[in-house]
Amino acid sequence: MGSVKVSVRGCRPQLLFPVLLLWALAAHAEDVLYDDNFEPDSSKFKLVVDEAKAPRYLLYDVNPGEGFNLRRDVYMRIAVLVRNLNEDSPWILVLPPWGRMYHWKSKDVGQQIRIPWSTFFDLESLRRFVPVMEFADFLKISPSKEINEVYYLQNYKEGWDKWEEKMDKRPCIFNPYYFDSEQDRWHGWFFGYEEEVWTKKLECLSVMGHASFLKPFLTQNRTARSIMLDRAEIVLHDRYGDSVFWQARRSMRFAQQLRDIADDFRREFLDSTDEKDETVLDDDWTQMKRNHGDAKGGPYLSVHLRREDFVRSRRKDIPSLEHAAKQIKKLMTKLKLKRVFIATDAPQNEFGELKSYLEEYQVYRFTPTPEVKSKYKDGGVAIIDQWICAHAKYFVGSRESTFSFRIQDEREILGFDPEKTFNRLCNEEDKECEQPAKWKIVY
After folding, report:
1. Are 105 and 282 in contact (CB under 8 A)?
2. Is the Cα dihedral 432, 292, 266, 252 positive or negative?
3. What is the pLDDT of residues 93-140, one digit of tens each?
4. pLDDT of residue 308
5. CA distance 26 to 13
6. Are residues 303 and 188 in the same domain?
7. Share of the chain above pLDDT 70, in %
8. In this structure, are 163 and 277 located in the same domain?
9. Domain identity same for 391 and 403
10. Does residue 268 form part of some domain?
11. Nearest-CA neighbor of 151 among 34, 56, 59?
12. Model confidence, pTM
């Protein structure tokens, strides 16, 4: 590579971050961005940065019991926080590897831990909203695999009688970390890197507030280069559903390889392509704006039918298989459709029973090849299901399911009529059958 000189004198810090990030990833240096005095190999290129601060790193994790789609929601909260941090000084969001999910139960795909975000999401798209990097890349530039400070977020033990934003250092109500007295350091799950990664500073914070309420705590009188917030789901969205919320959501594009698999399935079985369905994506989401009704959708009904633990814990919300089939039949007649795609966590025998009630229709379910399942795990298969559901002419989901919520988001981004998106299946005893709130996209 030839010599490239970049001068950013007087430039706003946030404009520098993509340059710094590209420099870090291109140089493949273990010390880059961590040592303020580091100088890259001039034989590759030269970077001259005037009046620039070395970036800091924010890491986070979520309660182990939370599922894949709730974790995606927490990412948005923390991404908005990092975007706000970047208004004053450079910060990079370190993406927590995926793994150990309750619903990821497949036995034939190996251990589902340490999965990078690039397996599921388009990192270039994420970076159009906020600077991000994979945890594995963070470890390459961290001199000793240390996270300087870890804060375990928790609710207030005494509860609360009124809403107010507040935060206090408190004794840990529950502490999942363990202390190595010989080396004077704390170890924990750390995304499946229990032995390699550690911290010397661990404190518990009782917090009530929005994500960006943490900004002063992270920036004032604090010099740690890397800070981790565990149990990040404790903090709330700054402003749920506003334009910044939707910028973060729009940036979360699925990885191209997963979209390709889903698109091939649509083409082969559902007579559905982006060109015919009017769902073609612009390469850059920041330049894309769709009106409601712009998307036509493929000639099929898509259904998310939640089963498994919902059948036990939410009996009033989940219909029997027979009643679900009755509702599907009614919609198929109304929409004059012959094909229906079912995304469900139901075991195969339950899916077979559902199909038996829908004999007059073409009923489809995505079944991954061993190669696809081995490479993309349960999370990738779930994304393929969501992408197929997102392109149907009409979608109906399950009540209070984050899986259904994320499909509704995708359809808003693609430009579907909300009346064809915000719908749910109802229990046979639910006579009113209230439909979900319509969280419409804001640009």
Report:
1. no
2. negative
3. 999 999 988 778 887 777 899 999 999 999 999 999 999 999 999 999
4. 84
5. 20
6. no
7. 88
8. no
9. yes
10. yes
11. 59
12. 0.87
Pair (47, 62) in one structural domain: no
Instruction: Determine phi and psi for 379, rounding to 5 degrees.
Output: -65, -40
pLDDT at position 30: 35
Highest mean pLDDT: which of 18-27, 29-38, 272-281?
272-281
Same-domain pairing of 300 and 206 = no
Name the residue with tokens 């002063």.
Answer: 216
* Catalytic member of 51, 66, 203, 278: 66
Residue 315 inside a domain? The answer is yes
Is 66 one of the annotated active-site residues of the chain?
yes
Do 169 and 308 sit in the same domain of this protein? no
